[in-house]
Amino acid sequence: MHEIKDTLRASVRIGYDGRVHKQFRGPRALERFDNETRVLRHLEAKGCPFVPRLLEADRDNLRIVTSNCGSRVERLDADRTAEIFGELEAYGVRHDDPEMRNVTYRSSDGRFCVIDFEFSRILEV
C-alpha cells in the first residue's frame, strides 16, 4: 500500500487495487468514524457523483475503505475551491473543512471531487 497521510487523527493509504483505506485514531475517533460513514452513505443515496463511495466500514476497528476519487490537487484558486464545496451543499452536506487538501482530481472524467468527510454536516433533516 502507498501511504498518503499519517497524522494523529488518521492514517490513509491507497491499496494496490486503488481503494482508499482510512484508519481513524486519536481524539473522538469513533465520533469522526460514525460521522464520515453517515455522510458518505447520505451522499451515495442522493446520487452525488463527485465523492468517494463507501465500500467497507469496520466500526470495531475504526476503519473504512472507499473508492478512489483521483489524485491530489496541487493548485486551485479560492473561487474554484468555494464553488466545488458549494456544489456539495446541493446534496445536503456542508463539508466544514473546505480546504484544497480535501479536493482531488479524477482524470477519467475531468472532475474535481471532494474527500474527507469526518467533520461534515448533513443539512437536511
Can you characterise this structure?
The chain has helices at residues 29-45, 78-89; strands at 2-6, 10-14, 20-24, 54-58, 63-66, 71-72, 93-94, 103-106, 111-114, 121-122. The chain has 125 residues and is of the alpha+beta class. It has a single domain (2-122), classed as Transferase(Phosphotransferase) domain 1 (Transferase(Phosphotransferase), domain 1), CATH 1.10.510.10. Strand 2 (10-14) and strand 3 (20-24) form a beta hairpin. The longest helix is centred in the first third of the chain and has 17 residues, at 29-45. The radius of gyration is 14 Å and the shape is globular.
Q: Mind sketching the topology for me?
A:
Elements: E1 2-6, E2 10-14, E3 20-24, H1 29-45, E4 54-58, E5 63-66, E6 71-72, H2 78-89, E7 93-94, E8 103-106, E9 111-114, E10 121-122
Antiparallel strand pairs: 1-2, 2-3, 3-5, 4-5, 6-8, 7-10, 8-9
Short description, anyone?
This protein is an alpha+beta fold. Helices cover 23% and strands 30% of the residues.
Q: What is the correct CATH architecture?
A: Orthogonal Bundle
CATH level 1 class label: Mainly Alpha
In whole angstroms, the N-to-C terminal distance is 38 Å
Proportion of strand residues: 25-35%
Q: Which value, in Å, is the CA radius of gyration?
A: 14 Å
Give me the secondary-structure category.
Answer: alpha+beta
Briefly note the CATH topology name: Transferase(Phosphotransferase), domain 1
Unreliable sequence segments = none
Number of domains: 1
DSSP helix fraction: 10-25%
Q: What's the CATH H-level homologous superfamily?
A: Transferase(Phosphotransferase) domain 1
Helical region count? 2
The total strand number stands at 10
* Mean pLDDT across all amino acids: 94
Q: What is the spatial order of strands in the main beta sheet?
A: 1-2-3-5-4
Main β-sheet: number of strands, strand sense, barrel status?
Answer: 5 strands, antiparallel
